[in-house]
Amino acid sequence: KKTRGNPFFIIQFLKTIIQNRMLQYSVSHRRWMWDCDVIDMQMISDGVAELLTTRFNQLPLNLMKTVIIASCFGSQVEDSTIDLLKPFNMQGALQLAIREGIMEK
After folding, report:
1. CB–CB of 82/76 below 8 Å?
2. Are 63 and 69 within 8 A, CB to CB?
3. What radius of gyration, in Å, describes the C-alpha atoms of the chain?
4. Left (φ > 0), alpha (ψ -120 to 50) or beta: where does 60 sit?
5. If residue 65 lies in a helix (H) or strand (E), which one and from where to where?
6. What are φ and ψ of residue 16, in 5° steps?
7. pLDDT for residue 28
8. Which residues contact 72 (CB under 8 A, 6 or more apart)?
């Protein structure tokens, strides 16, 4: 009910509850384990923007700076522009942003 069916919010919500260890896979039971009451009591935002802001503020500083810089180029950044950023050692942070689902390649 927190996600209201928004696919993007569902992904972010799942990432948050997994990161906060509220949803875990039990090898011994061979299934996912969670407690709806615990999840409902947590201060997980009901809004996409607030949830993303919270997640963004939890990012490592170098990743946050990289995302901020990349966002200055717009919603899409050409490979040639990324190449110009190589002297600033942002490649690792860009790869992490892609793995975290913050950016797409």
Report:
1. no
2. no
3. 17
4. beta
5. helix 61-71
6. -65, -45
7. 94
8. none
Q: Side chain identity at 55, as an amino acid letter?
A: R
Report whether 44 contacts 13 (CB < 8 A). yes
Task: Determine the Cα–Cα distance for residues 89 and 52; give it in Å rounded to an integer.
Answer: 25
Return the structure tokens found at 12. 């972010």
List pLDDT tens digits, range 61-92: 888 888 888 888 887 888 888 788 777 778 88
Question: Three-state DSSP class for 89?
Answer: coil
Residue 78, phi-psi category: left (phi > 0), alpha (psi -120 to 50), beta (remainder): beta
Model pTM score = 0.50
Average pLDDT over the chain, rounded to whole? 80
Cα separation, 50 vs 85, whole angstroms: 30
The CA-CA-CA angle for residues 44, 6, 49, to 5°, reads 50
